[in-house]
């Protein structure tokens, strides 16, 4: 199975970029399953219900979330009918939505798990992603050999610790949240494919997808100021993992493709809140 992970979409520029590059990405890489992080798809923070349905319609078969999972008020009530959206599995048991799901593909079944890290999140207090992963793996049918994890975490130390904890238990663990692509994709000794951070889809000429002047201003003045989405240097970033029927990966590689189409004032649903 060839699995394509779409690095975190940041705001309207990220959705626009995904819409305009996906056809070329699919033609070149021929993925069997596509999933990715929508934690910053709406305004850079969280996922709105309409954007969730729109991204699924465009081709994201599963959408993972992180610390911003419930930032948009219209999403939690809709999660009961949006079974392709996965909030972190280590959210409290009574949290709306689900944290993992098994999907059918033309070449077999794949389990997708969303996890949130504990370190570096001041507003999030969640149970251990390590223990949650073990518990979730017990619930996934044993005949499902291909299992991928989106680990939305703030520190490289926690990410890499979980990588080795998960080595040999899942096919791949892909790090998200930092929105800066790392060059450490590799196969661990027991076979699990990992990368510390897959990067972002949207503006690369920016600070994590946002206009630099706004981010600089907060550091210089300590005054709160709302981040503004950047449209400069749009590009798709992601990760491609080739996985054997046994669930063991053959390879993992980073993908980047520039968006050559200029955005217009009105570009469809990706331009709407």
Structure characterization notes:
This protein has 273 residues and is α/β, with parallel strands linked by helices. It has a single domain, classed as Metallo-dependent phosphatases (Purple Acid Phosphatase, chain A, domain 2). It is 22% helix and 27% strand. The strands form 2 sheets. Strands 1, 2, 3, 4, 5, 12, 13 and 14 form an 8-stranded mixed sheet that branches. A 6-stranded mixed sheet has the order 6-7-8-9-11-10, with helices on one face. It starts with a strand and ends in a 15-residue tail after the last strand. The model has no long low-confidence stretch (mean pLDDT 95).
Strand content: 25-35%
Oligomer: single chain
Q: Gap between N and C termini, in Å?
A: 35 Å
- What name does the CATH topology carry? Purple Acid Phosphatase, chain A, domain 2
Shape field: globular
Number of helical elements: 5
Approximate helicity band:
10-25%
Average residue-wise pLDDT = 95
List the helices and strands and how they pair.
Elements: E1 2-6, E2 8-9, H1 11-29, E3 33-37, H2 49-58, E4 62-64, E5 85-86, E6 100-105, E7 108-116, H3 129-139, E8 146-152, H4 156-166, E9 172-176, E10 186-187, E11 193-195, E12 200-203, H5 212-221, E13 234-243, E14 249-258
Parallel strand pairs: 1-3, 2-12, 3-4, 4-5, 7-8, 8-9, 9-11
Antiparallel strand pairs: 1-13, 6-7, 10-11, 12-13, 13-14
Considering the chains and any ligands shown, give keywords for the structure:
273 residues, Purple Acid Phosphatase, chain A, domain 2, six-stranded mixed sheet, 27% strand
């Amino acid at each position: 199975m060839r699995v394509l992970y779409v690095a975190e979409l940041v705001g309207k520029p990220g959705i626009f970029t995904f819409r305009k590059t996906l056809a070329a990405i699919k033609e070149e890489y021929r993925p069997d399953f596509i999933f990715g992080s929508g934690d910053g798809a709406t305004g850079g923070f969280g996922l709105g219900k309409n954007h969730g349905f729109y991204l699924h319609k465009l081709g994201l078969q599963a959408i993972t979330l992180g610390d911003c999972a419930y930032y948009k008020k219209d999403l939690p009530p809709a999660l009961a009918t949006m079974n392709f959206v996965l909030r972190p599995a280590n959210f409290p048991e009574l949290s709306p939505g689900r944290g993992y799901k098994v999907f059918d593909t033309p070449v077999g079944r794949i389990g997708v798990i969303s996890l949130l890290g504990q370190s570096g999140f001041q507003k999030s207090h969640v149970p251990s992603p390590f223990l949650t992963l073990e518990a979730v793996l017990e619930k996934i049918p044993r005949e499902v050999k291909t299992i991928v994890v989106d680990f939305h975490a703030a520190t490289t130390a926690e990410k890499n610790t979980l990588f080795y904890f998960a080595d040999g238990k899942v096919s791949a663990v892909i790090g998200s949240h930092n929105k800066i692509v790392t060059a450490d994709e590799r196969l661990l000794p027991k076979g699990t494919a990992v990368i510390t951070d897959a990067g972002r889809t949207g503006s690369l000429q920016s600070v994590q997808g946002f206009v630099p002047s706004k981010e600089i201003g907060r550091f210089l003045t300590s005054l709160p100021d709302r981040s503004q989405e950047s449209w400069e240097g749009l590009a798709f970033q992601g990760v491609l993992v080739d996985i054997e029927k046994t669930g063991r990966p053959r390879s993992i590689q980073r993908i980047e493709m520039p968006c050559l189409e200029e955005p217009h004032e009105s570009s469809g649903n990706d331009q709407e809140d």
